[in-house]
Amino acid sequence: MSAGRLVLVAFVAALACEATHAPDQAAERPFAPTHEEILVEPRSHLLPTYPCTSCHDEREAQPTRRRLADYHRTRYDDLKHGDDAFWCYQCHALEDIDKLRMASGQLISFDEAWRLCTSCHGDKQRDFQRGIHGLTIGEWNGKKHRRSCTGCHDPHNPRFRSMTPEKPPAPVQSR
Q: What span, in angstroms and rounded, lies between the C-alpha atoms of 129 and 39?
Protein backbone atom coordinates (compact mmCIF):
# COMPACT_ATOMS: atom_id res chain seq x y z
CA MET A 1 0.00 0.00 0.00
CA SER A 2 1.36 3.41 -0.94
CA ALA A 3 2.14 6.03 1.71
CA GLY A 4 -0.67 8.27 0.41
CA ARG A 5 -3.26 5.50 0.72
CA LEU A 6 -1.97 4.56 4.16
CA VAL A 7 -2.40 8.16 5.35
CA LEU A 8 -5.92 8.27 3.87
CA VAL A 9 -6.90 4.99 5.57
CA ALA A 10 -5.49 6.22 8.91
CA PHE A 11 -7.40 9.51 8.55
CA VAL A 12 -10.71 7.76 7.78
CA ALA A 13 -10.16 5.34 10.68
CA ALA A 14 -9.50 8.23 13.05
CA LEU A 15 -12.68 9.97 11.94
CA ALA A 16 -14.69 6.78 12.37
CA CYS A 17 -13.21 6.26 15.83
CA GLU A 18 -14.04 9.82 16.85
CA ALA A 19 -17.59 9.47 15.52
CA THR A 20 -18.24 6.22 17.44
CA HIS A 21 -16.32 6.86 20.66
CA ALA A 22 -16.62 10.61 21.26
CA PRO A 23 -19.60 12.11 19.43
CA ASP A 24 -20.00 14.92 21.98
CA GLN A 25 -16.40 16.08 21.65
CA ALA A 26 -16.73 16.51 17.89
CA ALA A 27 -19.57 19.02 18.36
CA GLU A 28 -17.68 21.11 20.95
CA ARG A 29 -15.07 23.03 19.03
CA PRO A 30 -13.67 26.36 20.28
CA PHE A 31 -14.11 28.01 16.87
CA ALA A 32 -17.81 27.05 16.69
CA PRO A 33 -19.33 28.04 20.05
CA THR A 34 -22.77 26.81 20.96
CA HIS A 35 -25.47 29.42 21.49
CA GLU A 36 -25.38 28.79 25.26
CA GLU A 37 -21.91 30.37 25.43
CA ILE A 38 -23.16 33.61 23.92
CA LEU A 39 -25.17 36.27 25.72
CA VAL A 40 -27.41 38.20 23.35
CA GLU A 41 -27.56 41.77 24.62
CA PRO A 42 -30.95 42.72 26.06
CA ARG A 43 -32.74 45.61 24.34
CA SER A 44 -35.96 46.36 26.23
CA HIS A 45 -34.26 48.78 28.63
CA LEU A 46 -33.13 50.85 25.61
CA LEU A 47 -36.62 51.31 24.16
CA PRO A 48 -37.91 54.78 25.11
CA THR A 49 -41.57 53.70 25.02
CA TYR A 50 -41.17 50.36 26.80
CA PRO A 51 -43.22 48.93 28.35
CA CYS A 52 -45.76 49.45 25.60
CA THR A 53 -48.59 48.94 28.09
CA SER A 54 -47.73 52.30 29.65
CA CYS A 55 -49.75 53.78 26.74
CA HIS A 56 -51.53 50.79 25.22
CA ASP A 57 -53.29 49.76 28.44
CA GLU A 58 -55.77 52.57 27.84
CA ARG A 59 -56.27 51.75 24.13
CA GLU A 60 -58.14 48.98 22.42
CA ALA A 61 -55.94 46.89 20.12
CA GLN A 62 -56.80 47.39 16.44
CA PRO A 63 -55.44 44.42 14.50
CA THR A 64 -56.47 45.70 11.05
CA ARG A 65 -53.95 47.62 8.99
CA ARG A 66 -54.62 51.34 8.79
CA ARG A 67 -52.77 54.63 8.59
CA LEU A 68 -51.55 55.57 12.05
CA ALA A 69 -52.88 58.98 13.03
CA ASP A 70 -51.46 59.35 16.53
CA TYR A 71 -48.31 58.67 18.52
CA HIS A 72 -46.35 56.26 16.29
CA ARG A 73 -47.47 58.11 13.14
CA THR A 74 -44.20 59.87 12.31
CA ARG A 75 -42.02 56.83 12.79
CA TYR A 76 -44.22 54.03 11.47
CA ASP A 77 -46.32 55.68 8.78
CA ASP A 78 -44.25 54.01 6.14
CA LEU A 79 -43.59 50.50 7.43
CA LYS A 80 -40.86 49.06 5.19
CA HIS A 81 -40.51 45.52 6.43
CA GLY A 82 -41.79 42.77 4.21
CA ASP A 83 -44.57 43.34 1.75
CA ASP A 84 -47.70 45.47 2.09
CA ALA A 85 -49.41 42.77 4.15
CA PHE A 86 -47.29 43.52 7.23
CA TRP A 87 -48.85 45.27 10.18
CA CYS A 88 -47.95 45.77 13.85
CA TYR A 89 -49.55 42.53 14.99
CA GLN A 90 -47.56 40.48 12.53
CA CYS A 91 -44.83 40.56 15.19
CA HIS A 92 -46.32 42.22 18.29
CA ALA A 93 -48.67 40.11 20.42
CA LEU A 94 -52.26 41.33 20.25
CA GLU A 95 -53.11 40.08 23.75
CA ASP A 96 -49.87 41.38 25.37
CA ILE A 97 -48.32 44.34 23.57
CA ASP A 98 -45.19 44.02 25.73
CA LYS A 99 -44.38 40.72 23.98
CA LEU A 100 -43.62 39.50 20.47
CA ARG A 101 -45.49 36.57 18.94
CA MET A 102 -43.76 33.69 17.16
CA ALA A 103 -45.60 31.99 14.27
CA SER A 104 -46.24 29.07 16.65
CA GLY A 105 -48.15 31.43 18.95
CA GLN A 106 -45.43 31.42 21.62
CA LEU A 107 -44.93 34.83 23.24
CA ILE A 108 -41.34 36.04 23.67
CA SER A 109 -39.76 39.16 25.14
CA PHE A 110 -38.34 42.04 23.13
CA ASP A 111 -34.94 40.86 24.37
CA GLU A 112 -35.45 37.69 22.29
CA ALA A 113 -36.35 39.54 19.08
CA TRP A 114 -33.60 37.64 17.24
CA ARG A 115 -35.74 34.48 17.58
CA LEU A 116 -38.65 36.16 15.81
CA CYS A 117 -36.44 37.75 13.14
CA THR A 118 -34.65 34.52 12.30
CA SER A 119 -37.94 32.62 12.03
CA CYS A 120 -38.39 34.39 8.67
CA HIS A 121 -34.78 35.17 7.85
CA GLY A 122 -33.32 31.65 7.97
CA ASP A 123 -30.16 32.58 6.08
CA LYS A 124 -29.38 35.13 8.78
CA GLN A 125 -30.17 32.61 11.52
CA ARG A 126 -27.37 30.33 10.36
CA ASP A 127 -24.96 33.27 10.15
CA PHE A 128 -26.15 34.62 13.54
CA GLN A 129 -25.61 31.26 15.23
CA ARG A 130 -22.12 30.96 13.72
CA GLY A 131 -21.16 34.50 14.74
CA ILE A 132 -20.89 35.83 11.19
CA HIS A 133 -23.88 38.17 11.58
CA GLY A 134 -24.70 39.94 14.83
CA LEU A 135 -21.56 41.81 15.92
CA THR A 136 -20.07 39.30 18.33
CA ILE A 137 -17.61 40.68 20.87
CA GLY A 138 -15.85 39.03 23.76
CA GLU A 139 -13.19 36.46 24.47
CA TRP A 140 -11.92 34.10 21.79
CA ASN A 141 -12.43 31.03 23.91
CA GLY A 142 -14.79 32.37 26.58
CA LYS A 143 -17.87 34.49 27.12
CA LYS A 144 -19.17 36.35 24.12
CA HIS A 145 -21.79 39.05 23.69
CA ARG A 146 -23.79 39.47 20.53
CA ARG A 147 -26.12 42.19 19.43
CA SER A 148 -29.67 41.16 18.62
CA CYS A 149 -31.06 41.94 15.17
CA THR A 150 -32.75 45.07 16.52
CA GLY A 151 -29.43 46.26 17.97
CA CYS A 152 -28.38 47.19 14.42
CA HIS A 153 -31.59 47.09 12.35
CA ASP A 154 -34.75 49.13 12.88
CA PRO A 155 -37.36 46.35 12.90
CA HIS A 156 -39.83 48.60 11.11
CA ASN A 157 -37.37 49.56 8.36
CA PRO A 158 -34.47 47.07 8.60
CA ARG A 159 -32.68 47.59 5.30
CA PHE A 160 -29.45 49.59 5.49
CA ARG A 161 -28.91 52.34 2.94
CA SER A 162 -26.65 51.40 0.05
CA MET A 163 -23.02 52.17 0.74
CA THR A 164 -20.16 52.91 -1.60
CA PRO A 165 -17.21 50.72 -0.68
CA GLU A 166 -13.92 52.37 0.18
CA LYS A 167 -10.93 51.97 -2.11
CA PRO A 168 -8.76 48.95 -1.31
CA PRO A 169 -5.58 49.61 0.64
CA ALA A 170 -2.48 50.40 -1.34
CA PRO A 171 -0.20 47.40 -1.85
CA VAL A 172 2.76 47.17 0.49
CA GLN A 173 6.03 47.76 -1.29
CA SER A 174 8.68 45.20 -0.37
CA ARG A 175 12.18 46.55 0.21
A: 12
Crossing angle of helices 122-130 and 113-120, in 10° steps, is 130
Residue-range domain boundaries for the chain: 33-152
Q: List pLDDT tens digits, range 64-109.
A: 877 776 666 555 556 677 766 677 888 889 889 899 999 999 999 9
Q: What's the N-to-C CA distance of the chain in angstroms?
A: 48
Q: Residue 75's pLDDT is what?
A: 56
Query: By CB neighbour count within 10 A (0-12 exposed, 13-18 middle, 19+ buried), where does 105 fall?
Result: exposed
How many residues does this entry show for the chain? 175
> How many H helices and E strands in the chain?
7, 5
pTM of the model: 0.63
